[in-house]
Amino acid sequence: MVAKGAEQALSPQSLTDRITVTLREHIVGGKYAPGRQLPAGKDLAQAFGVSITVIREALSRLKADGLVASRQGKGVFVANDSKARPFRLVKSNGTRRALLEIFELRMGVEVQAASLAAKRRTARDLAVMTKHLKAMQPSPKSFDQALVADLAFHRAIAEATRNPLIVSFMEFLQPHLHESIALARSNSARRPETEIAAYQEHREIFEAIKAGDQRRARTAVRRVLDGSLRRLSEGGQLQADFGSRAAEYAPRRQVRSIRAKTASNKR
Amino acid sequence: MVAKGAEQALSPQSLTDRITVTLREHIVGGKYAPGRQLPAGKDLAQAFGVSITVIREALSRLKADGLVASRQGKGVFVANDSKARPFRLVKSNGTRRALLEIFELRMGVEVQAASLAAKRRTARDLAVMTKHLKAMQPSPKSFDQALVADLAFHRAIAEATRNPLIVSFMEFLQPHLHESIALARSNSARRPETEIAAYQEHREIFEAIKAGDQRRARTAVRRVLDGSLRRLSEGGQLQADFGSRAAEYAPRRQVRSIRAKTASNKR
DNA sequence: TCTTATCAGCTTATATGATAAGTCGGGTCT
DNA sequence: AGACCCGACTTATCATATAAGCTGATAAGA
């Protein structure tokens, strides 16, 4: 059944997963000081009661995270430079609170992006923005199209900063905001006056960037996002469901097809 | 030799490293659509001409990155939910350009943090800020102490936002900014008048947050960071060296203690 | 006809042993 | 003393083997 599939995807932390978590905790917890050498793979395997394979895979993950570094013939060492470590959004569990936190972080970056864009935008940037802005005009053919254009417009701003870091960070944030955006729009948008207001506000951002007015650009973005934030806050509850974990790997359907196939194959 | 050690740490991308990169490119490049099943480990090993061990370690890393998900008995699938993916600052190679990019990103978050802090700060937050601000007062005992207090002050602002995401993101950014901060201060700071100005500017941030004036807080932070940015831009070149890669793992000496421990543990 | 049991063939997960190669220190030989 | 070698460590990689989950087909039973 579907329930079984979901349970399946959640519970079975593999042995490697658990060992990885444990090792990571030991390292960040300070059990092994930065620069220190870890026990040899063989010893770790014995200590945890698992095979060397599991230890190797766990260490490989930590190595990919920049937490440790191994050198052939010498050993595995705790990295004392934390610059390679990635930034994760683990707590994005769909809670409204989590969404608000992400949204606030996004606002800071987006305001900064608009500010920089106002200073560095080229004619080409402005042309791209204009294109997307047009697709956002009120009463568009499809609702989704306006949303896509909205995202593309903000992305164009990011690219106009000439700062690839800001671009990639906003790309990183976007999927986490996907639900909040959908919610905010479904809450109170769809009403023509809201649509028109949204268009006007975005237009104001564009004009400020075009004019090279950094402060005005910041204010305009802040106004737009404050509006979204308000719509997000006032709406109904969230977190109800956004697809069971099992739905993420595109299973389903096979159940039916299998059954159909067995039926037809019955010969 | 040292040169050999450095070369050693840079070039010898392990086989697993290369396969991981290749596989990642294939996936994000769209060779395998989200939800699609990857070829079996055995086939991948044959296709790349490596052993299954290497494939497994590579897949294990991608799995830890949320790029793929494996299910025993079924296979490995490309995850179609990108929310688990981490954010990395790979290009932080010490170039001045890279530092500026990080700095600009930081500025956006920090301005937002101050803005939120002005709205949500508690009396306790203000007390903490006051403490650090005092330690920043001109002509302090030690130069380093002022720098530490500076960082602590900004951290206190982040915590006053009540947004743990902002706190952890600034923590994530900080080691990457370490060099730029040191550079900016060594460039033109140390002069009494600069120190005094920095203190006054930070004081202004505090006052704005205390007064609950969001806009003033944003402006004040922007002024401080613009100042740092200017000092960073005008100074001498960077990127010369900040410790060879080999020095990052600080081996030596501890090796002995570990060895002694394992030796004694060998029952 | 329909359901159920069983089996063969896939897959990943884990374990184990072997080989290659790098590091390090001690010992030997000159 | 200095150059050299050798053995004991390490990680890296490879090759198999076993266990366990999944899938589909077939056989057995109602």
Count of domains of chain A: 2
Oligomeric nature of the chains: homodimer
Shape of chain A: elongated
- Output the CATH class name of the largest domain in chain A: Mainly Alpha
Which fold name is given in CATH as the topology of the largest domain in chain A?
Four Helix Bundle (Hemerythrin (Met), subunit A)
Across the major sheet of chain A, the strand order is 1-2
Secondary structure class of chain A reads mainly alpha
Task: Please describe what this structure looks like.
- The structure is a homodimer of 267-residue chains.
- The first copy, chain A, folds into 2 domains: 70 residues, Winged helix-like DNA-binding domain superfamily/Winged helix DNA-binding domain (Arc Repressor Mutant, subunit A), CATH 1.10.10; 139 residues, GntR ligand-binding domain-like (Four Helix Bundle (Hemerythrin (Met), subunit A), Up-down Bundle).
- Chain A is elongated and about 65 Å long.
- The first copy, chain A, is an all-alpha fold and 267 residues long.
- Chain A has a two-stranded antiparallel sheet.
- The N terminus and C terminus of chain A are likely disordered.
- Chain A contains 11 helices and 2 strands.
- In chain A, α5 crosses α7.
- The two termini of chain A are 26 Å apart.
- Chain A binds a DNA duplex (30 and 30 nucleotides) through α4 and α11.
